[in-house]
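Running co-folding for magnesium ion.
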Amino acid sequence: MQDRSSNTMGVHTQTKCYIVTDLDNTLVGNAAATQEFNRKILAWQPQVGLIYATGRSYQSAKHLQRSEDLLEPHYWITGVGSEIYYQGDLDQSWSDHLMHQWDRSRILALTKDFPEFIPQPDRSQSDFKISFFLYDNNATEILARLRDRIRAEGLDAHVVYSSREDLDILPVRCDKGLAMRHLMTRLGLTNDNTIVCGDSGNDIGLFKQNTLGVIVNNAQAELLDWHREHGQDSSGNSHQRIHYANAECAAGMLEGIQKFQPDLF
Ligand code: GLC
Ligand code: MG
């Protein structure tokens, strides 16, 4: 890891853990806490790796990086896992992997039967991501109908709903957590030396991978609901592997990282 003015980044054999974090309302949201996180990450080099996992496109995430003064991470997972970037280059092997059972035009066609869906701007759409805004008190039922429709047509996809607003339809092999797993395999990371951090529905995929995790205090209801229902570890009686922080945004991340890696502090 080097500072953001540099493009080169090695993965070091001394790596103690990797932090995989969402951006909006997790790493970003409290500027002072974000900068405190940056200072810690720089001080921890080369022991701690950093991956951003965001719903934003790569271009939009780079824009946020500049405006919020974020460090350059080792890897970028963008578009809710639909793209992986390393040193500015798209990981083509990941894109190839996502093509499995993905028929974008047929999925797009069947969404026309859902008048509640408001298309997001073109810049938020990509080969492996179809995104809408959905503001409706009956969103749960509408999404159940969408999933049924996809199955009835003999198709398959991941339907991800975040913040009572954002609807992403993705290939069945795609979410933030599956993209992270691809990188974990490549980097030789284990569930015990990977810490995911997030606040909303599109982060559930990260938490499902059974790594360590930090839910920031300002999390959305859908992530807290998921945690209540599925967040137990394999012994079934505790949430030891996922820390629900008392602090918000990057301060909550640091709180959780301190719990899992006290030696760093
Ligand atoms: C970001 C993306 C948007 C997506 C949302 C939730 O805001 O720009 O397309 O729907 O994240 O994943
Ligand atoms: Mg977020």
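Result summary
Confidence is low (pLDDT under 50) at residues 2-10.
Residues 17 and 193 are 5 Å apart (CA to CA).
Job closed.
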